[in-house]
Amino acid sequence: MDILQILILAIVQGAAELLPVSSSAHVIVAEKLMGLDPTAPAMTLLLVMLHTGTMFAVIAYFWRNWVETYFKSPHERRTNLIGIVTATVATGIVGLTLQYLIKHIVANGDPHFEIEQLFGNSKLMAAALAAGGVLIILSSRIKERSGVELSLKSSTLIGAVQGLCLPFRGFSRSGATISTGLVLGVSRRRAEEFSFALAVVLTPAVVAKELYRLVKHQGIAPGASFPSLIHMAAPGLLGMVFSFIAGLAALRWLSSWLESGKWYLFGGYCLVASLIVLWVN
Question: What pTM was computed for the model?
Fold first, then answer.
């Protein structure tokens, strides 16, 4: 994998991960167009590093707003912490339940089945992209209401919708959670801040899972030397920097369109992208 390929993947992952357009669908298409194997250990490690870069971009972009919103008083800190924890628990319950049902219904209880085996299904990916696009367009038509707080019930519903995104590549996490917040009457800024607060909580778990799969499938031998690990991680470190920069640019873009009433355009893009996924595959 050369530097140009790393740069392309980092920009695609960094931007699409934070924009409501599904990074996984875009990365898979980009990998196929460049003739790369998404199941290769080096590719898995690279994507883990790219996820980490976008997570730091989210923290850097929202930190000041989070301090003003979540930590301005002990009461606000406690209330928002409960909301984030409740939403994350709802995500885990819905996501794990879906994975269990898929394993026992689609895979007939195959003990070797992993949810990642569905990620290459272009029809499923296109359907998820289209569903996300429709949700974004519908939510954009709801007028923003003032004075609506992010209640515990709303937090739980947003977390549950986030859980629906986990097994399905193409169903954008940020698009689904922000749209759900808008449907529930939460302000655009509050829905955006909460969505990405959930992302920061969720990303370490996703990264840890991918690293576990990498070791489990012997992508990294248990006795691998430190120089060999550095050699394997070097492309990822470079990609992490690129994805961080792309992530910051994407967040500015998202905030601008969300606040200026152009949110629906992301939905239209998802609908077009779903057709492209079917065409490429």
Answer: 0.86
